[in-house]
Amino acid sequence: METQYYTLIEKQDFYEIIENKYGELAIFIDAREGAPVNPVLQFDGKKTALLKRDEHLAVKLDDIDDETKGPLAEAEFLLIVELQGKMVERTYAVPVENVEEIVLEGKQTRADEFVKAKTKDEILAKFGAIKCWTNGSKK
């Protein structure tokens, strides 16, 4: 049983956004471990998007090209293509949410990672706590 008590945000340094003849968009990124669960892409309408891959991992896309802003902001869904080298690891559709600002909560651990600790309530829920005892001296 794997239990993770934090959310990791990885920065994708190189990625491609393509548009087909039907106006549909696809984003090519590096493959991550495991299948995504309820993924969504948030876009701030400026230069940054955040692919929330699952409850533990998000992928930050910086420096979005100016020509891409319009089609990305208008898209309801797009295709994510995860690559392992030049081979496709997986593809999946994600809804696009336009947001005012991408908010990165947590502590930056490296130039490309942010770690956000879960709240006490989130940890208790994930742990499956059925009882909780308060101990120590009473004040």
Commentary on this structure:
The chain has two helices and ten strands; from the N terminus they run ββββββαββββα. It has 139 residues and is mainly beta. Strand 5 and strand 6 form a beta hairpin.
Structural class computed from helices and strand pairing: mainly beta
Principal-axis shape: elongated
Q: How far apart, in Å, are the first and last alpha carbons? A: 38 Å
Main sheet makeup:
10 strands, mixed
Measured by DSSP, the beta-strand proportion falls in 35-45%
- Helix tally? 2
Please give the order of strands in the largest beta sheet: 2-3-7-8-4-5-6-1-10-9
Low-confidence stretches: none
Mean pLDDT: 81
The total count of strands amounts to 10
Radius of gyration: 18 Å
Q: Topology as H/E string?
A: EEEEEEHEEEEH
Helix-residue proportion: 10-25%
Summarize the structure in short:
By secondary structure, the protein is mainly β.
Descriptive tags:
mainly beta; 139 residues; 2 helices
Q: What is the topological layout?
A:
Layout: E1 6-12, E2 16-19, E3 25-30, E4 40-43, E5 49-52, E6 57-61, H1 66-74, E7 77-84, E8 87-98, E9 107-110, E10 113-117, H2 120-127
Parallel strand pairs: 1-6, 3-7, 4-8
Antiparallel strand pairs: 1-10, 2-3, 4-5, 5-6, 7-8, 9-10
